[in-house]
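Cont'd.
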Amino acid sequence: MESKSYTTGSRDNANRNLEGSKTLMASHFLRALFRIQQTSTTRSSFAGRRRRIRRAAYASMAYSAGTRRAWSRALLRKLRSRARLRFPRRLSRAARPQRGDTDQAQVLRKLVPGGPGMDYCKLLEETADYIRCLTTQVRLMQTVMDSISS
Amino acid sequence: MYRGPPDQLPSCLLDLNWEQTMESTGHFESALSSVDGMGVHKLVGGHHVGVRLHSPPRPNRSMVGHFHQPQQAMGGLPPSGTPMPLTHLDQFSADLGRFSSFDGRNYGHLATRFGLLDTESLSRTAGSQSPQTSRLPIGREIPAQNRLQSDVNNGESMNAREESSVSDPASREVSLGAPAWSSEKKRKAPPKGKAKEVGLANSAMDPPKVAEEDAKRCRSNEKDGNEDDAVKPKVEQTDGSSSNGNGGQKQGRNTAAKSPEPPKDYIHVRARRGQATDSHSLAERVRREKISQRMKLLQDLVPGCSKVTGKAVMLDEIINYVQSLQRQVEFLSMKLATVNPHLDINNLSNLLPKDVHHQTCVYTPPPCVDHSQHLPDGMETQSAVNLLDSTFHQGLSTHQPFLVGFESASSQLGTFWEDDLQNITHMDIGQS
């Protein structure tokens, strides 16, 4: 189950990879933004652009986390499957119904991508990494915002 | 709102902002690992402060009491010498290698990290003195919560068993005479203790993985047969040291009689008093500890949760925080959509900080001020310009070559992911 050391290893790995993952995330997100800006015309709606930017944000988050994390894998799967709605899905990963779950845990499962497929222990671990990545992404977007509108 | 750094100067580099803010979260982790290393050195250096786990008060209390008596007995302990610790380390690793052969578990990592070194030294230098007796009175004082103590003592008893030549035969017999459940704990506790303590220590090493796997292996072995497991150490020891290879995990079907003796070994009683010994509850306990460790991690991540206690409240806070972060992403994406037309220059300028390694980026505002006015939008240009070299001007005319150059520079982007992104964005366009 512990393919990755969760507390200790992840902390040090988070420290070591922080710079690299931030760079990855930033480059990915900025390129996506640039692409969106280039391809958005006067016809494209504001809501459509917003949706695309939001998806670019989550995509860059998942991209920076790579396949190491269950939540990033689930997120990428979701992004890819939404992109290919027309094609038949191969497998729907049915999550095992978790027994003995508090309703808080259920809410958390809905929030964190890939939540339904994990046990509580793994859910907490994935939540921690997800929060870390989310805060990085939010800071990135804030910085971009500030740099644009200063 | 859970905003990060409140003041993000537009003139600052993208890099700097992030590093400052992320380091605040990183400090804790690095501090933990550094403390752990310091703790080990302190022990070996003979300070005898006690095992410096990341809950210092507890081990201090116990370990100080632990070390007193042997210290009085033998003056040969390392309070004197700094060369001692190094030799100790070498000997320890050798002995711990033997440990691993003994029952297949890797105590080396744990021992080096958690001051089993000193206990090792105690048992070895003690020689004829039975460490058992010295431990007995201490065993009464210390509360049952101290798993480290139990683990150390278990390690010590392992030491006693391992070094048959050194330890007292009497002490060996006492440890041999330990009843089924206590010896079962001896074997279960170390890997469990390892898993717990390694988790507690939060040290970034492979040992956590090894410890976890060992704990799992131990647990799975236990589930095969509790009673049989309990008897194993006694049986092996009576046979002699030859059974080292067979011990530990390869739990055969030895159905030797269980010892009906009441627990004489106070250490084990103290460690596990009031707690069930079957594999299910032990596994449950390990699981609960894992969950609590992860909750601690989350507590560090979520701001304003340090004083909150209780799992329910913590979970509420975590859920609120995740929801607020997701809302922030939505909000910021909306804001970015409104200012989208102005993005092009900023993309380029913000990209540059990542490329800093390739260029020498000099922070020279004055000479670059002129160039900033050339920019069509002329916004945040300070930040852009400070990073820019002359290459910016080359790229200014056309954005494409600049991005291409950046792409070639950033080798992190695999083409695989590249394609995925393009698929996503292309599909985006297709959908909307």
